[in-house]
Structure formats: C-alpha cells, structure tokens
C-alpha cells in the first residue's frame, strides 16, 4: 500500500501529483450461486435511442502489469445465466421467483487481423461489475464497456430483474434496494467460474482487482455496494459512479470509513440526476476521490453516444482503474490531462483527507 500526499485539481488550472493511496480489504463472500438457464415517472427514467488464448500480458517497470491502451485487445462476449436461489423477486405480473441475473461478460481476446474475436487473452485481468440505469439494458452502454475490455479488463454487466426495460409487467424502480446484493452475487458467481476449469472465464479474473461501476440507478447500486456499511462488499477495490446518487429508499445510507478510491462523474446540465445528488455523497466520501464534471452534459449521452464527452469518460475511467487497481503511476497524469479538457470536462482530485469543500 502506497502513501500519497495531497493534490487538488480545480477547474483544470493546476495539479501537483505526489503519491497514491491504495485501498485494501479482506475477501468476504457467503452468497450461494447456481448458474441456470433463465429467461409513475421514476427519478432516473430518460427517453433514449439505441444502436454484441494466448498473448503475453503487459509489462511495467515495477514488476506489475502496466497500463494497456484501449484497443490493445480484441473483445469476446459470453452471456451467463445466474440465479440467486437465496432471494426472490416479485414482478408486476404477480409472479414470484428466485432472482435471475443474466450477465453479459466482455473479456480481452487476442486481436485478429479480421477484427473478429480470437482466443481469450492470457490473464488474469481486473474485473469491473457494471450496473445499467432504470428502464435500460446493458447494451446501450456497449461502447464504454467494450472500451474497458479492449484495455484489459473483464467487464460484467448484469441485467437487474426488475429495473430492466423488459421486466415482466414493466420495470419497478423500488427494487433498487436489492441491487447491491445482486452485484455481490455476480462477483461471487464469476469468481467461482474463474476458479473452475473448462469454461471461458477460467483463470481470467484477478480476484484482488475488482471495481464496481454503474450509470444512474446502476451508479446508485455501485455506490451502496462499495460504501454502505450494511451492503458494502469488501472485495471491491475501486468504485466509479456515473451520474448516480444515494439510493433514496435507504434512509440510513452512509459512507463507511475505509472505502475504496472513488471516481464520480456528473453532467452539469443533468436534470435527472442533479449535480447536488452527486455532491451529497461525494462530499462525505473519504480520499482518494475524484469528481469529473462534464460541462453542459445531460444524463445519458456521456456514457453512450456523445462524440465529445464519451471519449473523455472512457479515458478518465480507464486511467483511474489502471492507477488504483494496477498501480500504474503514469495513469494519474492521464486522468488529470484528459479530465481537464477545455470546454468538455473539469477534474477535481482529492488524494488526502481534505475538507469536503476544499476544491470547487
């Protein structure tokens, strides 16, 4: 674990990088997993339009894998049908059943000349669990998720049983309170497959390098999974909250001490997840933490199809993960440079225990 002195980056005018703080926590599980075959205007509802074995891992001067540029790897996809038999879901149709958590996993592959995915690249790789927003599906975020996978991450996107747009009888946002446990269940399920032989994920995941992320309600989910004292998963070593907030049906939500490094992103013109919603949890989060302000951005575009803001989100999030999961020191400067792109983004960075209002 490296100790890191402080920097505050405000409005893109200056930044002084001294060192880093790397979070650690013991592994914990206890959730049963069984892979099987399955088939009001809410706060986070938006109208949107939509548009699918062997290389050497990267090297670094400190003996650990170094940062890999996006596009280094091809991207393969596998769909896994998990069911949590220990918890149930009741759909609007009245049907009650064990919670189905179909999960789309993107993983690095050998890059072929034809552009088609080759064999799985040689791992292990860090794992990202990504949560979709209310009345959405993971597919709308395919560009961002693919970008991460091409940079050397396993990216798993579960379909939440009641918040997805195809939920029987229609989606129901109040099920949001159950989704942090869904994320933990998916982590456990994937690590089980990683440890078993004879499947596409065998040996691909580094169980010590796990991040959670999500957009809108998916960001709410990731926030609780990483920080809430009753829901926190100590296996999570980094969190990226994309236009998310505290879960409104968890009135006792707090940021537990000792949580992982945080990157929050927020559009300044987002009228679904307001800037103050992000500010509420960000101000109370411990360092190290970063806030990427997307100038003039609305709720969904920066994470799906905005031609100027999506590339900034892709690069800053990837650099954050390279730095805090893989200890690549050069990645911090990438965060600072790209995050402070004039007219597009401003990156506020706290790397020591400064006051909540120290950077503006």
Q: Outline of this structure?
A:
It contains six helices and twelve strands.
Main traits of this protein?
360 residues; Rossmann fold; 6 helices; 21% helix; globular
What does this structure look like?
The structure is a single chain. This protein is of the alpha/beta class and 360 residues long. It has one domain: 3-Layer(aba) Sandwich (Rossmann fold). 21% of the residues lie in helices and 24% in strands. The chain contains 6 helices and 12 strands. Strands 1, 2, 3, 4, 5, 6, 7, 8, 9, 10, 11 and 12 form a 12-stranded mixed beta sheet that branches. α3 links the parallel β8 and β9. The chain is globular. The two termini are 29 Å apart. The relative contact order is 0.17. The N terminus and C terminus are likely disordered.
> What is the gyration radius calculated from CA atoms?
19 Å
In the CATH hierarchy, what is the superfamily? Answer: Alpha/Beta hydrolase fold, catalytic domain
Q: How many beta strands in the DSSP annotation?
A: 12
The overall average pLDDT, rounded, is 82
Which architecture does the CATH hierarchy give at level 2? Answer: 3-Layer(aba) Sandwich
Return the CATH class: Alpha Beta
Describe the main β-sheet briefly. Answer: 12 strands, mixed
Strand content: 15-25%
Low-confidence stretches: 1-66, 354-360
- Helicity, as a percent range: 10-25%
Helix and strand element order: EEEEEEHEHEHEEHEHHE
Number of domains: 1
> In terms of structural class, how would the helical and strand content be classed?
alpha/beta
What spatial form do the alpha-carbon principal axes imply? globular
**Total helix count?**
6
Gap from first CA to last CA: 29 Å
Can you tell me the CATH topology? Rossmann fold
